[in-house]
Amino acid sequence: MKKLILTMLIIFPILSFAQEKGIAFEHQSSWAKVKAKAKAENKHIFVDCFTTWCGPCKYMSSTIFPQEKVGDFFNKNFVNLKLQMDQTKEDSQEVKAWYDEANRFATDYAVRAYPTFLIFSPDGELVHRIIGGGEADDFIAKAQAGLNPETQYITLVKQFEKNPQDAEIAKKTAQAAKLAYDQDLEKKAAARYVELVGGESLLTAENIQLLIQGASSSKSAAFGIIRDHAAQVDELLKARNRKANDILSSVLATELIMPQLQSNNVDFAALKQNIAKNHPYVDMSGILANIKTQYYFKQKNWPAFKDAVNEFIALDDKKVSPMSLNSFAWSVFENCDDPACLQAALDWSKKSIEKNEDPAFLDTYANLLYKTGDKDQAIMWQEKAVTKANEKDKETYVATLDKMKKGEPTW
């Protein structure tokens, strides 16, 4: 017994020491108490807004937050709080006590992506936000920016509002808004920067992203610059594998096509003709074909879906990924018995496995063969899918193979 007690005395200090490493999160009963502590200690407040289903959130909690150097920085500079934004059956009473506050945070501080990290001043005023995690050193640097008024996101926003004619502030705000996942402000600040600077001076590697961000409508100055200098924009975007047409067509699709999709009978031919007449400088065929596939998929109009996918592939089949081909094919397999649709899906599926013999793609091809009546070939390809499958998926593929051999439906 003495030996056991001695062992426990040795172990407990070690455990205690281990628990002190990493970020020390508060277990206060209210936001008011957290703010009171921060004000008393003259520290900023760091709030981790997370959900139980978010992978990056889990990574930050399990790998980044427990690190000693992370704990040293955050515990020195912040009062730290974890705020669960979703609700589950397994939630503790402590988590449930914060439900209302979590809902308020989501609304008041526009928490839309996870993880979102909010930084408040010692007086409880929001001054900075960070979207997404990162490795330890990078994350510490992001949080350090939240302590400096020159780099605090909310501080920049206030400067932008007070100085509408300052191009440099507009530029910094657009860049900060992008990092903060504030898309509305990102577009607004970038558009302001483009308007203030103007002209061909924007056609540089440094400014091209701001030009793209500022092209929020066909009436924006940025849109006009991209339209009138398409060749130069293409050259600047070459490394990104994008072109001016991609940006222009995306803007016009948002303005002219998307509002029409609420209708149950969209006349795509008329839309295409109208756009060609009023905007002859842009090729909308690719984005229009892509939108058509989504439209007819939602309508469950499989013959029209088949034609739309074939049109989309015909534009440039090299650009259609194996994943997209497989997705198109599987949608038909699950939802349609029409022979023409099934044959088209079989063709798409075959193209996908010619590009990549992923077991999931092989499984789709085998299922389509089976549904069209080619049982022997279906079994052969399903056996190949089983051979290539990982242990997690193999059981499902084997079950499908057994159904094929017994002559049972797999759909």
Topology of helices and strands:
Blueprint: H1 2-20, H2 31-41, E1 44-50, H3 55-64, H4 68-77, E2 78-84, H5 93-96, H6 99-108, E3 116-120, E4 126-131, H7 136-145, H8 153-162, H9 167-179, H10 183-197, H11 208-214, H12 221-228, H13 230-236, H14 244-257, H15 268-278, H16 285-299, H17 302-315, H18 322-335, H19 339-355, H20 359-371, H21 375-388, H22 391-406
Parallel strand pairs: 1-2
Antiparallel strand pairs: 1-3, 3-4
Helix pairs in contact: 4-7, 8-9, 9-10, 10-11, 11-12, 16-17, 17-19, 18-19, 18-20, 19-20, 20-21, 21-22
CATH class identity of the domain at 20-151: Alpha Beta
CATH-defined fold name of the domain at 20-151: Glutaredoxin
- How many helical elements? 22
CATH superfamily of the domain at 20-151: Glutaredoxin
What number is the mean pLDDT? Answer: 91
CATH architecture type of the domain at 20-151:
3-Layer(aba) Sandwich
Q: Give me the secondary-structure category.
A: alpha+beta
The biggest beta sheet reads:
4 strands, mixed
Strand order in space, largest sheet: 2-1-3-4
Number of strands: 4
Unreliable spans are 1-19
N-to-C SSE series?
A: HHEHHEHHEEHHHHHHHHHHHHHHHH
* Amino- and carboxy-terminal Cα gap: 65 Å
Radius of gyration: 28 Å
- Helical content band: 55-70%
The shape is globular
Kindly estimate the percentage of residues that lie in beta strands according to DSSP: 5-15%
Signal peptide: 1-18
Domain Thioredoxin: 8-148
Keywords: Disulfide bond, Electron transport, Redox-active center, Signal, Transport
Pfam families: Thioredoxin_2 (PF13098)
